[in-house]
Protein: Carbonic anhydrases/acetyltransferases, isoleucine patch superfamily protein
Organism: Herbaspirillum seropedicae
Amino acid sequence: MPCYSIEGVIPVVDPSAYVHPTAVLIGDVIVGPDCYVGPTACLRGDFGRIVLQRGANVQDTCVIHGFPGHDTVVEENGHIGHGAVLHSCTVRRDALVGMNAVVMDEAVVGEQAIVAACAFVRAGMQIPPRTLAAGLPAKVVRELTADEMAWKQAGTRTYQDLTVRCLASLREVSPLSQIEENRPALAAPFVEPLIAARRA
């Protein structure tokens, strides 16, 4: 992975974490145990510290940065969806930030809360635990159901499983020129989209 020190400060990646080779880590970045950092994610700790606690995942094309003297923290089992941007904020334990959402300076996403895809969480906003925030700017819409919180936890577990799968088997290869006979299926655990689960 592209990993850079600045002013002698070097990123730290726990051996049980997986950081994709195309992700970029700069400076004061701490990736804790069992974390997953996806392709082309950029964690830029050249101003403030960035911390991913145990079991957090930061998916492809996410950007994490912050102001000098301000940490940006994703707590244990935090789940940051594709393309999200975090800046000098805190995502509490078991919370989810949806795809392409933006969470701004000094905002706090409460424990087990969900920020909807494409939401804009303004600077300083405090999202209460176990609530859904959505919109531009984001507003707290309602409390989450037990089923929604369980769905989020199942999704996070699939990324923790992906960390193990990537460490064990992800390798750069050349593509095949045609589909082989008896093409193997992936061993990913089954999780369906929330909309499909609601239909069931």
Observations:
- Helices lie at 146-169, 194-199.
- The chain is about 15% helix and 30% strand.
